[in-house]
Amino acid sequence: MMARYKLCGTLDQFTPGIFPAYMKHPDVDMIECRLDLWEGVTGRAGLYTFFDGLMAAQRWPVIIVCRPKRHGGRFEGSESERIALLKRAVRNGAEWVELEHDSPDEFFDAIRDGNARIVCFYRFGQEVSPSESLLFDKCMELSEKNPDVIRITGWVHRPEECCYYLKLITEAKARLQKDVIAYGLGPAGRWSRIVCLFVGSPWTYVKFVTTGQEQTHQFDARVARLVLQYISGGDSTNDSPCTDPTVCGYRYSY
Question: What pTM was computed for the model?
Answer without folding.
Answer: 0.89
